[in-house]
Structures are given as C-alpha cells and as structure tokens.
Amino acid sequence: MSQPALLSPDNRVVMISGASRGIGAAIATRLLADGYRLSLGVREVDRTREAFADTGKDNLAVEYFEANEPESAAAWVDRTLLHFGELHALINNAGIWRQVNFEEGDEAALDDLWAVNVKAPFRLTRLALPHLKKCGIGRIVNIASTDGIRFRDTTCSIGYTMSKHALVAMSHAARHFGYDDGVRATALCPGAVATGMVATVPGVTPLAERLAPETVAHTVATLLSLPNNASVAWMPLNTRLESTV
Ligand SMILES: NC(=O)c1ccc[n+]([C@@H]2O[C@H](COP(=O)([O-])OP(=O)(O)OC[C@H]3O[C@@H](n4cnc5c(N)ncnc54)[C@H](OP(=O)(O)O)[C@@H]3O)[C@@H](O)[C@H]2O)c1
Fold first, then answer.
1. Separation of alpha carbons 161 and 191, rounded Å
2. Which residues on adjacent β-strands are paired with residue 163?
3. What is the best residue among 71, 163, 165, 197 to mutate for testing ligand 1's pocket, by most ligand atoms within 8 Å of CB?
4. For the segment 158-171, what is each residue's pLDDT rounded down to a tens digit?
5. Which of 143, 198, 201, 216 is most buried (most C-beta within 10 Å)?
6. Which class for 241: exposed (0-12), middle (13-18), buried (19 or more C-beta within 10 A)?
7. What domains sit in the chain, N to C, each tagged with a CATH number?
8. Residue owning the nearest CA to atom 31 of ligand 1
9. Residue 96 confidence class, pLDDT cut points 50, 70, 90
10. Nearest to 138 by CA among 172, 167, 175
11. What average pLDDT is seen over the chain?
12. What is the pLDDT of residues 55-82, one digit of tens each?
C-alpha cells in the first residue's frame, strides 16, 4: 500500500504525561488545536482540567498519573481506552532534573531520576504498545534531551544525563519491538527549553537563547504527522553550536 504524504490528526488519540505545565502543556495545547483527541496524565487533575477548560472537552480526558506509582500508569491507560476506545500515540514527557555528580547529590536523587525519567516511560510503553500496534500507525515520542546523546561538560548532572541516555536506549528498543506493526518511536532531544525545570541548572543556555516550549510542541506535531516510511529514531534540537549535536 502506498504511504500518505502526511498523516491527519483526525480521530487520533494521544496520551501525554506531565501535561500540567512546561513542555507537556505546550504539546497538549498544540495538539488540541491541531484536532487530536488527548488523554493527559498528570498529578494535579483538577488544576489541569481548569487550565484546559476553554478547549474542546469532547476531545480531552485528564487522568491521574504519578510516575512513582506503577498502578497509576495502568489506570491511566485503562481510562484512556474506556474514554476513547483506541490509542494512536504516547508522549513520554514527564521528567525531573536533579544535580547528581561525583561530588554532589545522593543515591536517593539518582533513584528519583531513574524512577521518573526511565522506569515510568518504560512502564507506559509496555502498557501502550499492544494498543499502538493495533492501529497500524502508532507513535511514541520520548522527550529526552541533548543530555541523552552526549555528556556536555563537568557542570552537568551525571544522573540526569544517565537517565536520558537510558530513555534514548528505550526509544530504540520500542522502535524495534513495534516496527513491523507500524509503530514509530522517536527520542526527541531538545537543548535548554524555557521552563521552570532549568531555571537553576548550571551551565545552561542563557534564557534569551533557550527554546520556547511551543517550538518543541511544533516538532512533536511534525513527528506525529510523518507517515510510516519516515522513521525518525532520534532528533537533536540544539540551542547552541556543539561538535556533534
Ligand atoms: N526544560 C528543558 O530545558 C528541557 C530540555 C530537554 C528535555 N527536557 C525534558 O522535557 C520534559 C518536560 O520538562 P519541562 O521543562 O516541561 O519541565 P517542568 O516544567 O518542570 O515540567 C515537568 C512536568 O513533569 C511532571 N512530573 C514531574 N514529576 C512527576 C511525577 N513524579 N509524576 C508525574 N509527573 C511528574 C510535572 O508535573 P507537576 O506539575 O505535577 O509537578 C510537570 O508536568 C522532561 O522530561 C525534561 O527532562 C526539558
């Protein structure tokens, strides 16, 4: 069968974790405007419902998701399927930054990074994959980082960098496991984005040069529009000149 030039948003259901603020909220705003049906997985359900109160309610479900509670991932997937009956894409966006290097930060912080940035996306991917395969055009976008594909310098969090490298590895695995059934998985790797997360991060790109969350959202929308014969394994989106990223 010949592939379409681009896929339409019409009737496609997308799950987005961590859509309460920052990049996740920008992705949700953009995809709703494009006509997708969305299931947002957030810790603060009421606050997020309120934030999206003006947008098409028929196209939106807001559900509880806490990355540290495995049962909340299963419940979110179940409720998404109850609400919409199908699933076409998963955006693993929820994430945290902690400073963990050879001198600062403890193992508890390392465990937090692993739990939120790696284990939770792994768990959601495992739960979503059968449904993504079923539709024949399933998509997974993992919001990794430029820190997922290189180690920039000694000001960086080794723990965060390790967690994002692991997320990129998981993206590659998801692409392999879903490929024959039309699932395409991308590790999207932005540099600094102007959200609360990086306000105090050492060595970060200056504020005026950071990506807008809307730019990342636009990139996600583009990735979701690509047909099955345009697989993007990973995509750096840097704010500055570096030798390989
Ligand atoms: N900002 C950057 O420069 C940058 C660059 C590259 C990649 N990224 C990645 O992009 C993603 C979004 O980051 P952001 O900049 O938008 O950060 P942010 O503004 O701090 O937002 C983080 C989001 O993740 C959610 N979250 C955090 N811990 C959670 C948990 N335990 N369970 C469920 N949700 C949780 C937050 O929910 P609450 O509102 O409930 O806290 C919030 O919605 C992250 O994966 C981050 O690593 C960010």
1. 12
2. none
3. 197
4. 999 999 999 999 99
5. 143
6. exposed
7. 13-237 (3.40.50.720)
8. 67
9. very high
10. 175
11. 97
12. 867 899 999 999 999 999 999 999 999 9
Each as own residue / partner, the long-range contacts of residues 163-169 (CB below 8 Å, 24 or more positions apart, any chain) are 163/113, 163/114, 163/117, 163/118, 164/117, 164/189, 166/114, 166/117, 166/118, 167/92, 167/117, 167/118, 167/121, 167/142, 168/142, 168/144, 168/234
Structure token pair of residue 136: 């024949």
Position 90: which residue type?
L
DSSP string computed for 115-139: IIIIIHHHHHHHHHHHHHHHHSS-E
pTM of the predicted model over 0.85: yes
If DSSP codes are grouped into helix, strand and coil, which group holds residue 5?
A: coil
Pairwise CA distance, residues 68 & 118, whole Å = 11
SS3 100: coil
Residues near 21 by Cβ (< 8 Å), separated by ≥ 6? Answer: 195, 196
160 is catalytic: yes
